[in-house]
Recover the amino acids of this structure.
């Protein structure tokens, strides 16, 4: 790491590790910030967009059914930043029936993303406060049984790590975080104290500072980026900015990956907090608006489906099956049987009806243990960009109407 790259405004200090060079230890939060009209405007825009998303969440008929697609989407996008190539459909397919899922890299990638979902859901369900213990528990789930599982899952690192180009030695690293031992433990303890202190800062500013600090500390051997992004979601909920886990910044970070890393490094080297805060607040505003539109599209789709089938005086069980699709848009007959607590024959008839109506499509190509997928849901989740108005539902709804 080039010590000469660190300016006088760098928010930390360099400590000698060994003959290979130095490491960076960030100062405790908060830094001195310069407030002006631009920062106030960005903060207001982000807060307004979050408020709209929070309002929409009140109308979700079943919060779990409608938030889980966002959890899975976040898991995929956050993992893609780290080079994982699994799609949203891959993750649901793995959950639907692992035995039929392809082997090799595709399966390994999907398993990593599935672990991310498990880690996030654990954090959301846990009664623990946001703490070093909770982060370790989430990290243990993230790294369990996948590539990197031998890299101290659930433990803060006991060795020096660094960030740099592939194959770079530590002396040539772009960044070297605090050394293990006392420096690392104290940095984590200070961050934990900041999270739970009354800092008299706007919550979104606090979250932006905490995310930077966690990435600067880099407390795990592997998986720091993913845990750091999970932390944002937990903080949004803990600070009361959201009531449901609908907002994630990984899509924004992935689209602007170069800027994301450059701005974090800019804080470290030159104390460029304003540039990082501007970037973070713009991301919150953009992704909150995107999540609002995406969630509204899912609600509209559900309402469209239910109206279509209610015209045919169907059973409540079939309507319940439609709701199941939003949390499990890839599934088997056996899984629908378990979700609805009905007989196998009844679940099979429901799936056949939904397939004939164009809501489900069979994707395994097998005669037994068949797997079904709801393409309209994936059209919403996979879309790069969605309009605010209700989208064209396509032939699926038309086919359903004709069939009824």
């Amino acid at each position: 790491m080039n010590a000469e790259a660190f300016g006088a405004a760098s928010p930390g200090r360099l400590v000698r590790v060994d003959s290979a060079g130095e490491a960076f230890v960030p100062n405790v939060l908060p830094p001195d910030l310069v407030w002006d009209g631009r920062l106030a405007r960005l903060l207001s825009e982000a807060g307004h967009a979050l408020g709209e998303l929070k309002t929409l969440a009140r109308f979700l008929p079943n919060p779990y059914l409608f938030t889980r697609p966002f959890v899975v989407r976040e898991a995929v996008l956050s993992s893609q930043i780290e080079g994982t190539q699994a799609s949203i459909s891959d993750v649901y397919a793995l959950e639907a029936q692992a035995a039929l899922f392809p082997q090799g890299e595709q399966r390994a990638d999907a398993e990593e993303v599935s672990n991310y979902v498990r880690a996030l859901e654990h954090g959301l369900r846990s009664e623990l406060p946001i703490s070093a213990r909770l982060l370790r528990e989430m990290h243990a789930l993230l790294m369990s049984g996948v590539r990197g599982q031998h890299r101290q899952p659930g433990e803060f690192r006991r060795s020096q790590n660094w960030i740099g180009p592939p194959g770079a030695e530590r002396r040539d690293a772009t960044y070297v975080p605090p050394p293990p031992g006392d420096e690392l433990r104290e940095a984590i303890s200070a961050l934990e104290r900041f999270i739970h202190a009354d800092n008299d800062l706007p919550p979104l500013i606090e979250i932006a500072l905490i995310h930077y600090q966690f990435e600067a500390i880099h407390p795990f051997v592997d998986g720091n980026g993913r845990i750091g992004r999970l932390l944002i979601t937990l903080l949004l909920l803990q600070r009361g900015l959201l009531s449901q886990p609908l907002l994630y910044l990984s899509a924004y970070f992935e689209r602007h990956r170069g800027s994301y890393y450059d701005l974090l490094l800019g804080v470290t080297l030159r104390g460029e907090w304003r540039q990082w805060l501007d970037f973070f607040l713009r991301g919150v505003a953009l992704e909150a608006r995107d999540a609002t539109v995406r969630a509204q599209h899912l609600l509209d789709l559900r309402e469209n489906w239910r109206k279509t089938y209610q015209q045919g005086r169907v059973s409540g069980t079939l309507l319940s099956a439609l709701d199941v699709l939003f949390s499990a848009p890839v599934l088997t007959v056996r899984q629908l049987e378990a979700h609805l607590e009905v007989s196998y024959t009844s679940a099979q008839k429901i799936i056949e009806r939904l397939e004939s109506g164009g809501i489900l499509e069979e994707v395994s190509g097998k005669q037994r243990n068949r797997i079904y997928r709801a393409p309209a849901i994936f059209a919403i989740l996979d879309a790069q960009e969605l309009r605010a108005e209700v989208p064209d539902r396509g032939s699926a709804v038309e086919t359903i109407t004709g069939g009824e």
